[in-house]
Every structure is written in structure tokens, then in C-alpha cells.
């Protein structure tokens, strides 16, 4: 195998998805810990704790104890280069999560053992399943009392429509948690409640090995053996093809906060997770092994380094190899640009990268050149499939309190719009013109207010508006001009496309009936 193919084959790029508070950011920390990327895993406990998760780099994330933007982290583990995309669990930031998932080749779904499959997990799982990517499941918090493992697996099948195969199985739970049994390696990992980081591993011949009688409470051991027999007889069979196509999810049990079961998950994950996969373009399917470099921008983030007020475009390399200083074609702008100093990440920490391969994620310094969805390609000109873009459901009129801060305010609004953190509209045929912010979730308003104040020194007024629906409108010019003259509550998006704002579905349907020759689109793709 050539060095080029070997490098690509060693890449594993995956996203971690879950409902808030399932332990997603904690699991990310522990994976980084095993990879040697951090010396001590920070945990999100609350506002009083001065230790924060590595992936939660934004100031508001540290204050609130939640993730509000996706983080990218890369590290080495054994012979693998691993790229983790840590996504916000809160539904108000789901658009950022959905876009980030387009850069992942597989996903790890985290489930709280006590709560089971929750609302946001269902939404994110649906996006992953639509892409047909492999999904790995980590059932977390086994050191606390939770639900029966069989019940959790049944719920996954009923609510998510996916079958599961437990790669390991818990022995007890909560105060009676003894550890996990690895069904493939036939080894027991014993849990030490007094020192969870100390894991004792015992090789056994199987579940009937007499050594288990010496290690485990008799009642729990009997229950464990009965469960294993039931799994072997009635459970799904191990099938790697079904795992690769996203039809079967390998399930792992453990406790991320106790660092228990995480390494077991990581070892199996690296064996099963796919190497980088290609992407569809308007010139056909682009394979990772294509020697020509190509990639797409899936995220833009301003002010990752507050001292330098910079802006970074996150690029997923789809094919070929990046070398420092190379020139590529920018498809949307139809021009050639030089990639001088791309970086790789550990959340907000970064280092200059000399070379990178398909599957890697690099950061490009962005002076305003990039938009989400942009395609870059070496000696070619094509575009990858468009990025998902959601219709906002909450709206507010926005203005700056201090007119002297207007320039900073406008800069902040433009940058946050290009990040995809908000959608910005201007009222149409209305004087004075008013700026309207649209968001998918109301918590985005709070983040907007916080970031404009702390990153751009601009204090704002937000006045909530009654609209709940936005529709992009198109059609024959005569009909469209008539619509623009007669219809109220119209706005222009950042590309000066006409957008109709409605209070409710009834109002929208009435308008649609009134203008049958016009088309009303739920979303506008970022181009």
C-alpha cells in the first residue's frame, strides 16, 4: 500500500451527538485524554467550577456549562489520526450541528442510561440515518442507577428504527456496578468506585469461567449469565456490513465521567469506523484517493482568538493531499487562491499544518473570502452538494444602543451572519429600513447579544416580532412584482432575495392560495 493511501486509511473523522446533559462533552474530553492531547480532562459541572471542558472554548459556554457551537479536535491514537467534531446538544443550535454532520464519516450517539432516547437525539439520529453513515452508541452513566439495558435497546429500535448489537455488556448498575464484559475479546473490566481510573482487566474463557464466581456477587452473576444467554440466543447477530451501512449500531456501556469503558469503546471504534468517504459533486462522486486536493467549508467561526479578532473557515478535505502554500480554485468566486497557513485544532488551540489528507479538517484564515458550502479544488472546478440551511422560527428587530458603536455592530452582524449563527434580513419597501434577525432557537438571541457585547463591544436592543415562518418567494417577474407591491411583511436576505414573513401557517396558506403561480421555499441554500 502506498504512503498516500495509508495516510488516508488512518483517518477517522466522526461527530458526537446527543441530547443536552447526556455527557457528550465529557466523553470528548476523555477521548482526548486517551489520545494524549490533554493531560487532565476538564468536566463541565457548573458556573462555580473553574475547570471547563477543552471543547467548550467560548466564554458563554464556560458560564452556562453548555456547548453552543461545534468544536473540532484532532489527535493521534496508536496508528490513527482522529478528528472529533463535538456538536451542541441543545436544539436551539441544531443548525450548526446539522452542518457539522456533513463533515463526518460516522457518528457516536451518546445515551443517558437513566433517560434513554431523548428528543434531540431523535432529531440528530434522523440526519445521520439520512446520510447512511455508521452510528456507534455509547450508553453512559452506568455508575448511576439507570434503566434496564434490554429496555434501552428496545427503545432505540422503537424510536429510532435501528437494531443494535452490544459489543460489551454491563454487570450490575449504580451502586452495584461491577464492570463490563467484552463479548469479542472475552475479558472483564472491573469497576473500582473508589478509584475509577484504575481498571483491572481479567481475561476469561467465557461467561461460565469459574474466575467470575470469585469476582462478582452471586446474585448479580446469575443475572448477568442469564442476560448473556438471552443475547446470544435472541439478540441480533454481529454484522459488519450492516454496521457500515448504518442499519446496525454497535452498543457500548460505560461511564464517561469515571473514564470507565471509554478506552474499550475507542479500541473497537477504530477497528469498525470507516476511513474517509467521498462526497457527491456536480461533476460526479469525488473519491478520497483522488490525488487532486478538494474540500468544502462547513463552518465559519469568528473570534476564536479574541486577542487577534480573526475568523476561521473550517474545511473538510474530501480528496487528495494538502501541502502548505498550495493554490486551489475557489468555485463560487471563480478565482485561484493560495492556502498559506492552514491550522489544525484542539478546540480554540491551533497549530500550523504542513500537510493534511482526505478526512482531515483544517482551518483557513478568512478575511471574508469564504462562505459556508464553498468548494475548493486543485486543478479543477466543481461544487459539492449544497449545505442544509433551515428556515428561522423566531424573529426580532435589532438595533445598536450607542450610535458610536454602529461600525462595530455592523461588522459583528455581518460576521455572525456568515458564520450561520443567525440569519439577517432587511425590511423591504419600508422607511426607515429595519434589520431583522431570524434564528432557529431562542437561545441564539442570548448568544447573539453576549457575543456582540463581548467580542464587538456593541450593546444591542432586541424587540421580538410575532413572525414564526419565513418563506423565500420566486416566480415569473410580473407576478412577483405584483406580490411585492401588495404583500406586507416582506424582507430581503443577505443576497437581496425576497422573503415573506408570516405569523402562522394559516396566514401563510392564505397567501399561497392568493398567489398560486408563485413558489414559496422553506429554505434558502447557502451558495
Briefly summarize what is shown.
This protein has 14 helices and 31 strands. By secondary structure, it is an alpha+beta fold.
Descriptive notes:
The chain has three domains: 12-272, Rossmann fold (3-Layer(aba) Sandwich), CATH 3.40.50.300; 279-377, P-loop containing nucleotide triphosphate hydrolases (Rossmann fold), CATH 3.40.50; 394-521, 2-Layer Sandwich (Alpha-Beta Plaits), CATH 3.30.70.3280. The two termini are 38 Å apart. The longest helix has 17 residues, at 218-234. The model is unreliable at 38-58 and 60-70 (pLDDT under 50). The chain has 527 residues and is an alpha+beta fold. The protein is built from 14 helices and 31 strands. A hairpin with a 4-residue loop joins strand 17 and strand 18 (335-338).
Amino acid at each position: 500500500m502506498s504512503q498516500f493511501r495509508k495516510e488516508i486509511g488512518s483517518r477517522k473523522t466522526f461527530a458526537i451527538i446527543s441530547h443536552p446533559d447526556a455527557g457528550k462533552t465529557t466523553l470528548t474530553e476523555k477521548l482526548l485524554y486517551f489520545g494524549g492531547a490533554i493531560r487532565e480532562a476538564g468536566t463541565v459541572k457548573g458556573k462555580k467550577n473553574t475547570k471547563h471542558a477543552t471543547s467548550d472554548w467560548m466564554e458563554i459556554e464556560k458560564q452556562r456549562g453548555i456547548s453552543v457551537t461545534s468544536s473540532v479536535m484532532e489527535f493521534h491514537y496508536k496508528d490513527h489520526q482522529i478528528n472529533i467534531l463535538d456538536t451542541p446538544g441543545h436544539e436551539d443550535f441544531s443548525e450548526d450541528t446539522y452542518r457539522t454532520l456533513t463533515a463526518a464519516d460516522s457518528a457516536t450517539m451518546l445515551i443517558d442510561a437513566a433517560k434513554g432516547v431523548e428528543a434531540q437525539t431523535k432529531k440528530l439520529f434522523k440526519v445521520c440515518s439520512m446520510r447512511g453513515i455508521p452510528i456507534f452508541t455509547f450508553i453512559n452513566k452506568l455508575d448511576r442507577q439507570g434503566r434496564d439495558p434490554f429496555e434501552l435497546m428496545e427503545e432505540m429500535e422503537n424510536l429510532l428504527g435501528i437494531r443494535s448489537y452490544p459489543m460489551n455488556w454491563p454487570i450490575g448498575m449504580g451502586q452495584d456496578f461491577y464492570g463490563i464484559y467484552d463479548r469479542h475479546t472475552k475479558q472483564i473490566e472491573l469497576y473500582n468506585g473508589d478509584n475509577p481510573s484504575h481498571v483491572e482487566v481479567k481475561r476469561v474463557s467465557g461467561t461460565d469461567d469459574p474466575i467470575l464466581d470469585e469476582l462478582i456477587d452471586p446474585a448479580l452473576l446469575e443475572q448477568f449469565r442469564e442476560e448473556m444467554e438471552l443475547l446470544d440466543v435472541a439478540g441480533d447477530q454481529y454484522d459488519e456490513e450492516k454496521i457500515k451501512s448504518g442499519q446496525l449500531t454497535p452498543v457500548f456501556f460505560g461511564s464517561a465521567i469515571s473514564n470507565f469503558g471509554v478506552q474499550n469503546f475507542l479500541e473497537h471504534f477504530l477497528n469498525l469506523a470507516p476511513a474517509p468517504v467521498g462526497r457527491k459533486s456536480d461533476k460526479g462522486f469525488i473519491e478520497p484517493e483522488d490525488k487532486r486536493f478538494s474540500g468544502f467549508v462547513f463552518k465559519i467561526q469568528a473570534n476564536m482568538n479574541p486577542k487577534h479578532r480573526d475568523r476561521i473557515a473550517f474545511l473538510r478535505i474530501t480528496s487528495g493531499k494538502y501541502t502548505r502554500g498550495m493554490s486551489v480554485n475557489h468555485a463560487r468566486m471563480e478565482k485561484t487562491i493560495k492556502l498559506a497557513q492552514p491550522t489544525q485544532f484542539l478546540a480554540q488551540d491551533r497549530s500550523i499544518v504542513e500537510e493534511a489528507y482526505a478526512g482531515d479538517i483544517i482551518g483557513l484564515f478568512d478575511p471574508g473570502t469564504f462562505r459556508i458550502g464553498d468548494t475548493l479544488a486543485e486543478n479543477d472546478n466543481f461544487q459539492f452538494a449544497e449545505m442544509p440551511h433551515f428556515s428561522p422560527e423566531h424573529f426580532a428587530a435589532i438595533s445598536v444602543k450607542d450610535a458610536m458603536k454602529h461600525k462595530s455592530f455592523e461588522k459583528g452582524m455581518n460576521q455572525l451572519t456568515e458564520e450561520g449563527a443567525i440569519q439577517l434580513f432587511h425590511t423591504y419597501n419600508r422607511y426607515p429600513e429595519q434589520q431583522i434577525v431570524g434564528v432557529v432557537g431562542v437561545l441564539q438571541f442570548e448568544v447573539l447579544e453576549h457575543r456582540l457585547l463581548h467580542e464587538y463591544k456593541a450593546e444591542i436592543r432586541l424587540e421580538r416580532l410575532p413572525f414564526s415562518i419565513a418563506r423565500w418567494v420566486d416566480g415569473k417577474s410580473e407576478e412577483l412584482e405584483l406580490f411585492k407591491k401588495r404583500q406586507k411583511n416582506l424582507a430581503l436576505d443577505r443576497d437581496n432575495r425576497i422573503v415573506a414573513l408570516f405569523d402562522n401557517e394559516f396566514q401563510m396558506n392564505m397567501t399561497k392560495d392568493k398567489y398560486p403561480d408563485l413558489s414559496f421555499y422553506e429554505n434558502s441554500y447557502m451558495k
